Amino acid sequence: MKRIALGIAYNGHAWQGWQTQPHGQTVQDCLELALSRFAAQPIGTVCAGRTDTGVHALNQVIHLDTPIERAQESWVRGTNAHLPPSVAVQWAREVDTAFHARFSAASRTYTYVILNARVRHPLWDGRVGWVHQMLDVAAMREAANALLGEHDFSSFRSSQCQAKSPVRLMHKVDVASHGQKIIVRLTANAFLHHMVRNIMGALVQVGQGREDEGYIARLLLARDRTLGAPTFSAHGLYLTEVDYPGYEFPRVSTEGFSLDSINFEDKL
């Protein structure tokens, strides 16, 4: 048996999340169907991060086991021939059997894009979170610093989360303004169910002046989800990077779709 790693990009707006469901309207169901058609045999997959309904990915990483022989480029082009426009394999690499898309990952990076504008923009429907009140980015950045380090993230955890422990290690947090966009990047060893969206809900509360800059720190200490902010929209959330020590995978090209350089006026 060979183990193959694939990099997958998808627009999650039309999908009911990553993980397979009986209705079949998930990215995993769609991808496994395409892989099975290409390989002419059933193919199962394991992913780096199970994204929620409406969440996008620039670089989801999966692995599969198969006895068949195919060139790396064939896995890309052959599978893509059976996929809809919203999902595409970006690269393929044969890896050793010690590699595991989920357990070999040292960290994952999620990026959230907020359109901070007086009115919503229909061309960005499903691709950004929209806030019409002007947000205080400096206050959001100061509040977000409390997330760094190892914490119990119970206050940012969905009631449906099945993780055995709420403790996670946050490596990096960045909050930056790019014209009408606010870009929030979070890198951690792993994330809980709805963790990023619940963090975003709290940061927006700070940006709107409804909470002060110590709000995030207080929520972490409280370890109580009922005290947190509402879960923010999935639309602006992207899985942008997964780090695997000892493995060198291609970086997905975002030429023409850099989250930092998106200019809304250019898209009119």
From TrEMBL:
Its EC number is 5.4.99.12. Pfam families: PseudoU_synth_1. Keywords: Isomerase, tRNA processing. It catalyses: uridine(38/39/40) in tRNA = pseudouridine(38/39/40) in tRNA. One of its GO terms (biological process) is tRNA pseudouridine synthesis. The active site is at residue 52. Residues 10-103, 143-245 form the Pseudouridine synthase I TruA alpha/beta domain. GO terms for molecular function: RNA binding; tRNA pseudouridine(38-40) synthase activity. The keyword tRNA processing applies. Substrate binds at residue 110. The keyword Repressor does not apply. Formation of pseudouridine at positions 38, 39 and 40 in the anticodon stem and loop of transfer RNAs. Homodimer. Belongs to the tRNA pseudouridine synthase TruA family. NCBIfam families: hisT_truA (TIGR00071). This is tRNA pseudouridine synthase A. It comes from Zwartia hollandica.
